[in-house]
Description:
- The protein is of the alpha/beta class.
- The protein is built from 16 helices and 12 strands.
Amino acid sequence: xxxxxxxxxxxxxxxxxxxxxxxxxxxxxxxxxxxxxxxxxxxxxxxxxxxxxxxxxxxxxxxxxxxxxxxxxxxxxxxxxxxxxxxxxxxxxxxxxxxxxxxxxxxxxxxxxxxxxxxxxxxxxxxxxxxxxxxxxxxxxxxxxxxxxxxxxxxxxxxxxxxxxxxxxxxxxxxxxxxxxxxxxxxxxxxxxxxxxxxxxxxxxxxxxxxxxxxxxxxxxxxxxxxxxxxxxxxxxxxxxxxxxxxxxxxxxxxxxxxxxxxxxxxxxxxxxxxxxxxxxxxxxxxxxxxxxxxxxxxxxxxxxxxxxxxxxxxxxxxxxxxxxxxxxxxxxxxxxxxxxxxxxxxxxxxxxxxxxxxxxxx
Length: 363
């Protein structure tokens, strides 16, 4: 296996057999070590992502889910997602993943145009992506997300339109539609490909939102579109600044402790260091100060197209709403925040210039 040139996830090229049994055992020990953080709480979602988790066998996934169920209290309606690539090797395991307990599939399609897939360094072709959707349906999946990018090398607005229409024809319940960005520590960042101009990127985004709306998708987050009732519960929890636990190499967690303090912690990034477990799984941790809490809440909540209830700010940050009243008024005056007392919500201009809006809450 090789890493895609745009990917900045904590993924590593496969050079030998996967140590899946050892890794799953480590994940469950990691969870046990963090048990105190989730005491008395139910898990409402599980997201198995980052890198290519579907390279693990269905047996390994089943062992992991069984171990999680034994250590935690699972919601009766829990959402369990696994990320997968639409190649033939992974697609053949979909039925076994479904039997193991996975009930939501997220497919990294990225494009349905052969030239774009080649430019992105993807190892599947358009037909394999279409076949993957068919196999997922036959396996019993009725909640499928497709990842699709725009702003690809040498892509025109018309090419982006055709790509999106082809993706919509796959009839998934959810579609993540986002712009290719050049992230540090990636091959594309070091050797940038020819990308579309800014006005073409904006055109792609605007036309994409219109096409998806006409197809019956609700635009509920900056880059997330869902059919009615099919929003991703796991990611909604992030955006609403809810708590989450992270296990695995490079995993991050955000947790509210008794007394109201909010802690972030992260695990050893490299799989070898994680598996070595010489000093425990946790690489670092810190408590969020007031400025951090304000900024991080806004970075997440203002991504939601309908925003959030204003009182969620105090509930999930522990800070009185009055503490940000001046900052909030400034954002309203700039036309970036909706002037509603009971909601924190970006205006259409605020969503377009989201970084500018968030910056207003950084001091």
